[in-house]
Amino acid sequence: MDQLKFCQECNQRNKCQETYQQLGKAEGSSVTFKVVAAFLIPILVFITSLVIFEHILAGMIETKELRIAFDFLLAMAVTLAVVLIIKVINKSGDRGRETE
User: Would you say residue 18 lies in a domain?
Assistant: First the structure.
């Protein structure tokens, strides 16, 4: 309610409307893949690798605290590697669009 009153009293309200209309009509590449790659994939990779390393290291390391530390460090390393791979893929994809 306050936002509507604020906009009605603003001397630039028409410019705001024009800007939002232009943004709504703007065409560009979809960012869905980049959003999923940036947020969902690293979380899934971390959880999956944590479970896998827990299963693998359960028979190798008896000390629970040490096993948890190794599980975490290995899962973080795998997740970091995946994030770096995603960044390289995104950069190479961006370069390909620039040459078109």
Answer: no
